Amino acid sequence: MSSEPSLLTRRVFLASTALAMGAVAMAPVATAQSSKSGGTLRVAFESDITGGDPYRSRGIQAGYVADNLYNNLVTIDPDLNILPDLAESWEVQEGGQVYLFRLHRGVRFHDGTSCDAEAVKWNLTHVMDPESNAAQTQFFTMVEAVEVVDAQTLKVRLQYPSSVLLPALAIHGSGGLRIISPTAYQRWGKDFGLHPVGTGPFRLGKWEQNQVIVLEKNPDYFKPALPSLDRVELKIMKDGVTRVTALRAGEVDFVNWVPREHAKRLEQDAKIRLWRGPETTGVFLVPTLSRTPWDDLRVRRAVMGYGLDREAMARAALLGYGRPLVSLVSHGLRGHVALLEMYPYNPEKAKVLLNEAGFDEKNPLRYGLITHAADPVLPTVGTIMKTQLEKIGVQVTMEVLDRPVFLKRHLAYDRDQTLVIAYPRPDLYSFAYVLEMGGLNVPNHRDRHVNELFDRMRRALSLEEQDRISAELQRYLADQMLVSGLVAITFLQASRDDVKDFTYLGGQRVSFETTRLNRA
Fold first, then answer.
1. What is the pLDDT of residue 520?
2. How much is the pLDDT for 320?
C-alpha cells in the first residue's frame, strides 16, 4: 500500500506571499487524533549521527534526530505551507522588512529553563555570528536587528524587504532555525552536540554510537496531548536488507530509509504501508574545484556531463523510483528546470574534451571518488558511473565510507570528487548554504556570480521572481559544472499497519510528534 502526498511544487511557502498585505498568520496547535497513547516506536535507522547540535552536527540523519528534539519558530505541513510552531502567530510589516512574532506562553526547554523571546533572540544572534560556524548563517545575513518587545514578542528587522525569512526559519539550510537552550549551550559549549537540549516532543535519553539512539517523551511539551509515544528507539541498521527484514518480521515498526529494490515487495504486504512521494532530492556529483584537474571546465563537462548515461543509470539504479537529472533541483521541487538537453550522453564528445585537456590512452585521467552506503543507491550509482567512464578512458577508484567518516572528508575537501545524496529541500534557494562562498561551499569554488544570483533571490518579493532567478542559476551551475545532478529520487519510508498519524514530509523532515501506536 502506498501513500501519495500532494506534490511539493507550487503551493510552497504560501505565508510568505502575504508580504504586501502585512498579513497575520495563525493556526491551531496540532493535537493527536486519538486519546490512546504510550508505547515505544522502534525505528530501523540507516546511519549513526554526527551529534545533536542542530547548528553544527552535519548530515541528513543528524537533522532527522533534531526534528524530534527541537522546535522552530515556524514549521511546515506536507505541502510546505508555513505553520506556527513556537510562534503562535506572526505579522509581516513595512512591506516585508519587519516580522513580529508572538510566542506561546509557558514553553520550557528540556532543562527547565524558559523558552521566551530572549532565548529566541539569543539563538538568532548566535546563528548570525560567523564565528558560530553554524550551517544556517547564510540564510540570516539579511537580518539587521533583533529586538525583544516583551517576554512573548520578538521583532526581526531586515536590511531590505524579503520573502525568504519565514522559509529560512522553517526549513532552509539544515532544517531552519531550531531553537536550542542558551543555558545548556553556555554550559557545554562545543560539546553541546553530546548534550542536546531543545523544547521538542522528545529529549535525548541514550546514545550508544553505532547501536541505538533513544528519544524519551517530553512530559512538559507545550502542545496538548502530544507526543503520544513514550519512547522512540532509533536502531542503527546500516544494511538495507537488514532494515527491511526487521520490518517484515515485526522486529521494528518503522524503516526510515527503504532501499528501492525492496519497495515493490513492501507495497504488496498488507501489514505494511509504504510512504512515497515526488522526487524531493537526488544523487549529485561534487568536484573539488581547488584540485587539478577539476579546475579545468573541459574535464568537468567531459566526466560529469557528456561521459555519463543518466537514462541508463536511472533505469538500473532506481527501479522506477526516480528519473535522470542534471539540475540541482529535483523534479518534485519548486522551480525545477529540465536540463538533460545540455548534456546528452556523448562519449565521443567527452573524449575530445579530455584530449584537449591533455588526457588520452597514454595519459589517462585517474581519480578517487568517495561516497557512503546509508542509501544503497549511492554505491550502485557509483559502480555504474565507474563502468561508464571506463568507456572514455577515465579510471575511477571508489571508496564507500562509513557516513560520519564520509562527512568529515567531504567537508574538509579531502576528496577528488564526492557522490552524495543532498538533504531534501524545497527549492534551489535552500541550497545556498552549501554553494555560496562563505558557506559550506562544497565544490570549493570561487565564482562570485553564484553569490550574486543567490543574493538576488533573497531580495525577490514574489515566488515568480525567485523561480526566474532559480532557473538562471540552475543553468549557470550546469553550464559551469560546479555541481551536477545524476538521478532524482523519491524518499521512501515504511511502517507496519499499527503505526498511525505519522506525517510524511518527503524527507524534508522526519518527525514523530503526532505518531501513535495502535496496539492491542
1. 65
2. 87
DSSP string, 50-93: S-S-TTT--SHHHHHHHHHH--BSEEE-TT--EEESSEEEEEEE
CA distances from 418 to 66, 362, 442 (A): 25, 26, 9
CATH superfamily, region 279-490 = Dipeptide-binding Protein; Domain 3 (3.10.105.10)
Residue identified by cell 502526498 is 5
Query: What nine digits make up the cell of 186?
Result: 553556555
Q: Which candidate, 186, 120, 220, 233, places its Cα nearest to that of 512?
A: 233
Contact 454, 328 (CB under 8 A): no
Largest Cα–Cα distance in the chain? 72
Burial environment of residue 312 by CB neighbours within 10 A (0 to 12, 13 to 18, 19 or more): middle
Dist. CA 262–CA 323, nearest whole Å: 18
32 half-sphere exposure, CB direction, 13 A CA radius: 22
pLDDT of residue 174: 67
Please give the helix or strand (H or E) that residue 42 lies within, else none.
Answer: strand 40-45
- Between strands 82-84 and 395-401, the pairing is unpaired
Nearest CA to 169 out of 54, 278, 61, 69 is that of 54
Residue 60's pLDDT is what? Answer: 87
278's grid cell: 515526488
Domain boundaries, the chain: 279-490
Could you tell me the mean pLDDT of each successive run of 10 residues in the chain, 520 residues long?
A: 32 39 41 64 95 91 96 94 96 96 98 98 95 88 96 98 93 87 96 97 97 98 97 96 96 95 93 94 96 98 98 93 94 92 98 98 97 91 98 98 92 96 88 89 96 95 93 98 96 96 94 92
